[in-house]
Amino acid sequence: MARILIFLFIAIALAAAGWGTIVYVNKKEDKKPPISADSGSTAGKSKLNEKRLKDLANKRAASANFSTFDPENSYEDGEVVVVDPPKDFASLAQGLGFTVIESVSLGDLGITVVRLQVPSGQTVRSARRTLLGRFPGLIVDANHQFDPSQSRRRRGPDTGSAADQLRKRRTSSSDSRARAAIGWKNIPLTCGRGVRLGMIDSGVDLKHPALIGQNIEFRSFHNRNRKQGPSSHGTAVAAILVGKPGVKGWGGLLPGAELKAANMFEFNKIGKKVGNVIALLKGLNWMAKQKVHVVNLSIAGTNNRAVNKAFKAARKKGLVMVAAVGNWGRADKPAYPAAYSQVLAVTAVGPYRGIYKKANKGNYIEFAAPGVRLWTAVPGGGKYQSGTSFATPYVTALLGLEIAKGASKNPAELRNILRGSVADLGKPGKDNVFGWGFVEKQPNC
Fold first, then answer.
1. How far apart are CA 287 and CA 282, in angstroms?
2. What is the pLDDT of residues 224-260, one digit of tens each?
3. DSSP secondary structure letters along 5-56
4. C-alpha distances in angstroms, 213 versus 194, 207, 208, 237, 244?
5. Residue 25 domain flag
6. Is 131 domain-assigned?
């Protein structure tokens, strides 16, 4: 028995020593650099890092919190709008209990719009039925609200993401990160001279370093009984379009262009930022009056009957309109005005052309452009922002150049011009995610 116990003791001691040796060896090996197929190859490491950045950037583009905006049920309480009402409409409507808030002659569109307060005790929907019962065929709808098509994630400047690391590599020496994001070369300060762009958006900070001295005229069409809305969104879009090169990367796509900027957003009585049908149509009428080559619409809402009528009128007046497809992450409901046939619809992709997850999907999607974590100008400085809003200016700028040089204003012909220089993404041909694909056309200036 004693011999057996001695044998067991020796065996255990040896095993323990062996285990200790195994652990020690693994600790030493942990200090060695990991073996890679690319070890010793700088080019290989670069390709591997680029691939990792690409994967991370595409994941970032596809990850987002969806908007809570409800387009069909977002409208001004107790208000309806009527387009081109019949003779004596105001007095007849008052006899039904309606109150005329304002009647606006949009002469450059050739239409008249009346805004009404609905009778006490009636909803907007029931009030619409009342008017249609008395005036069959009347163009009447709610005074719907619109959403600026940008990310709702509230965060300050962030330079730690994979997409940002890639941008630093590609745009560190660029005077325009917007141009670098799509692969445009640095262009002369005069690029865009003779082009007259329009945008209907939020306010614009004309004192921002990116916009001081640029050829911008601003008008606000918000309700004068309310405070004008914030300027963050509009400032970003304006700078992407015509920002001054050489100012912290905020240089615009067409720095030499003229910009007519219309604000349609305001704060309502509970402090919420809203933009409605009336302000949009007033802005659209001003665009027609200014005879802009292209109108940029980085907004999204429902299919409003009054807006539909006005956009058809705008097309007849020769306006070319480009709109964001919206950031609701929906495929069941199209966003307007992008889904109107006379409007060109733009979605957003990341730096490696992965789709922005918040972007809406549908058969109205036509073209894709950069719109994920773009470096944008905002009041007080700059920050990275995402949204189909920021992709739309790329198509606006390209069409502005083409039209200023004599291209047809027919939407079908303009689509063909862009289709001639796209990179097909997703399913072959036109699809509901990327449309015809990523716009690769270079500016002709």
1. 9
2. 999 999 999 999 999 999 999 887 899 999 999 999 9
3. HHHHHHHHHHHHHHHHHHHHHHHHHHTSPPP-TTTT-HHHHHHHHHHHHHHH
4. 16, 9, 10, 17, 8
5. no
6. yes
Query: Structure tokens of 241?
Result: 């379009």
Q: Are 360 and 391 in contact (CB under 8 A)?
A: no
Q: What's the CATH code of the domain at 350?
A: 3.40.50.200
Burial of residue 308, with CB atoms counted within 10 A of its CB: 0-12 exposed, 13-18 middle, 19 or more buried: middle
Q: Do residues 214 and 193 make contact, with C-beta atoms less than 8 angstroms apart?
A: no
| Count of alpha carbons within 13 angstroms of residue 74, beta-carbon side | 18
Q: What is the CATH number of the domain that holds 88?
A: 3.30.70
Question: Are 117 and 252 contained in the same domain?
Answer: no
Q: Is the C-alpha dihedral spanning 237, 240, 245, 249 positive or negative?
A: positive
Claim to verify: residue 176 and residue 238 sit in the same structural domain: yes
Residue 441 has pLDDT above 50, yes or no: yes
Range(s) of the domain holding residue 298: 148-439
- Are 200 and 137 within one domain? no
Average pLDDT of the chain to the nearest whole number: 85
pLDDT tens digits, 304-361: 999 999 999 999 999 999 999 999 999 999 999 999 999 999 999 999 999 999 999 9
What's CA 229's distance to the chain center, in Å? 18
